[in-house]
Amino acid sequence: MMRLYDTAEGSVVPLKLRDPGKIGMYVCGPTVYAPPHIGHGRQVLVYDVLRRFLEWSGLDVTFVSNVTDIDDNIIKRGLAEGRDPAEIAIKCEAIWWQVMDQINVRRPDHIPHATEYVEEMVELIQTLIGQDKAYVTADGVYLSVEEVDGYGLLAHQDLDNLLEGGGEREVVGSEKRHPADFVLWKFAKSGEPEWSSPWGPGRPGWHTECVVMSLDLLGEGFDLHTGGLDLTFPHHENERAQAVALGREFASHWMHHGFVETDGEKMSKSLGNVTNMLDLIEQYDHRAYRLLVLQSHYRTPMEVTGASMVASETALDRLDTFVRRTSVLDKVEVPDALVERFRTVMEEDFDTPGAIDLLFRQVREANSALDDGDELRAAGAAAAVHLIAEVLGLELGADEDDVPAEIQAMAEERQSARAAKDFARADELRDELHSLGWTIEDGAGGPEVRRA
RNA sequence: GCGCGGAUGCCCGAGCGGCCUAAGGGAGUGGCCUGCAAAGCCAUGAUUCGCGGGUUCAAAUCCCGCUCCGCGCUCCA
Q1: Mean pLDDT throughout A369-396?
Q2: What separation in angstroms does the CA of A342 have from each of A50, A177, A402?
Q3: What is this structure's pTM?
């Protein structure tokens, strides 16, 4: 039984399922107005791994992640660059999926777009107005937060506290009934994209999107709602508020992941620590960031620097070398004890660092066994490594390039030189191969040539 | 100001009352192996867990105060 920290509860609790054997999860997806950054990267990686693990556990997972393609940020950028906001959204979404493919993040089962759900959103707002839980003002339609039981559940603060302090929330000169009331429908200013509604042309508010789409695709009382820590309030609070106002059961479990930090150091390409996923993938092994994300617990802040990316790549080399070394072993079943350890670790608040720990221990176990000539023991540990890596979405053992004839010839010449104890010539050839981008290692089974 | 979370070796990062003489990864050092390397293995590395108090037979882990950092209270993964 999976246990997860629930933001509403403030503690780790069993993840209860509405329908046994099935789980519906809603992951707040991107607003497509810029390329994904490493924060998005952590987000998609965390939930991609969770999904893979839940499926491996035998659950039938419905994974929904939206694309926000109506938003102030998109409009703002369109205005600034004199472009059609819709075109920006389409382009940015294309880049998003391109990045997802490159980092081996699986596509959601459903990808609802805000633009496809405007009618349903209007309907929802209409219902709320009919119940006098929402009201129309000069600039839009607002939800009356005081009508909502337990508003502040996720924020862990009451309404008064939420209003004090640093926020720039509009209070003075507003027609809002309560300062915390939030917008469900924004009337369009001239030049802005608009959809028609009974109250006037405009666009839906961000918080309305996700309630409508999650309830539509996953149904009332769905299992798991996730997102970044920053979405807890107001976004998720306000989604819930609308559902509660409507008298509908919303998500039963709230999961939030921590932020990515960069040591106060400016992230820049020249420093080798970049914030943009496109640059990150270009500069490092596309699996390196996944491994890095996996190595820290999803709820704690995580440090990303060029150095940690390089460290992650080196660890990946170790894993790839291991896979190469063990590929000749007979395939055996993963020992039950290891399967259970993996499951136990992961089920306790999604402890991926614990899983990575287990993974590397098995690597050492197998290498050690191999050094001792115990292939059977090595095969079991190696099988565990493959299982864990697969469930975590880590692709190991990169494809080997074919060795060209001339490279092969040089390797053979080196071997002859070694046999003749002409080590000077042998080392010369090894250096030459290296400068051509090839590595040669003398293993137990003879020299092995591969791409450096 | 209020709320939530973080501070652990050279770096990343687990641990969250006794199994901690603190996991795992990366870097370093010594050794085995190797013609030399590489890979791999073994060993080594925090007597200490931001600071100051306290509780306890026992604290990195609990409580109080403080410092610094992040997030939220406005759009944000």
Answers
A1: 96
A2: 13, 52, 36
A3: 0.94
